[in-house]
Amino acid sequence: MTFTPYILLACFLAGSTACAQTPGRTAQAMERSGFVDVRSMDSTIRVSLMYARADNFTGRVLYTDLHEAYLHPKAARALAKAQKILKASHPELSLKVYDAARPMHIQQKMWNVVAGTPKNIYVSNPKNGGGLHNYGMAVDLTLCDAKGDTLPMGTKIDYLGKLAHIDNEAEMVKLGKLTPEARRNRELLRQVMRQAGFKALRTEWWHFNFITRAEAKAHYKPIP
């Protein structure tokens, strides 16, 4: 969307609140393609997109005009279900989304950072069709308290290393690299997401897929 000088002046006089709430071009394109803002399904879900900031593994801001978390409607409904499941047992907690639907051109920028390095196992290659984020069928998230502060999970989201893997957590606890509290928090997150129909990714405690990659390629189109 292009703002005219009159709109910009109006936004300035209004304290720019309206402008801040206006979806960017990427968000508008996702809506036109049928993707859903997850907070329209459940406004209690918190969103803090990590690629809209520079404190991610690329060290760059990749989402220059996207601050909302979009998913395919099926995945968005399942995420809202997960939030309800969590609230039923832990009303003081909330899901906090760090990434959801991701355009393929952003996927390419991420791949360029890890290509040719041992870290490339953590990023899907666009040449191979990308990953489920590129279909709006995957979500990266954590748990947070009522203030929005994230619970201890052992690593930050976006940590590319074995400590983020979910299949060696018991060993990591024994070695003192992962606290029992962080392990319990991870288990709670997995429990909630699985009950809602998501599947955990072995190498990233924060990543959950709603369908398989084969299903996505067969029935859906990636986001350009």
TrEMBL record:
Cofactor: Zn(2+)
Listed SUPFAM superfamilies: Hedgehog/DD-peptidase
Superkingdom per UniProt: Bacteria
Entry binding sites for Zn(2+): H133, D140, H207
Signal sequence annotation: 1-20
CDD domains in alphabetical order: D-Ala-D-Ala_dipeptidase_Aad
Alphabetic keyword roster: Cell wall biogenesis/degradation, Dipeptidase, Hydrolase, Metal-binding, Metalloprotease, Protease, Signal, Zinc
Annotated site (Transition state stabilizer): R102
Active site: E204 (proton donor/acceptor)
GO biological process: cell wall organization; proteolysis
Major enzyme class: hydrolase
Enzyme Commission (EC) number: 3.4.13.22
GO molecular function, one term: D-Ala-D-Ala dipeptidase activity
Pfam families: Peptidase_M15
Main function: Catalyzes hydrolysis of the D-alanyl-D-alanine dipeptide.
Family: Belongs to the peptidase M15D family.
UniProt-listed PANTHER family: D-ALANYL-D-ALANINE DIPEPTIDASE (PTHR43126)
Official protein name in the record: D-alanyl-D-alanine dipeptidase
Lineage: Bacteria, Pseudomonadati, Bacteroidota, Bacteroidia, Bacteroidales
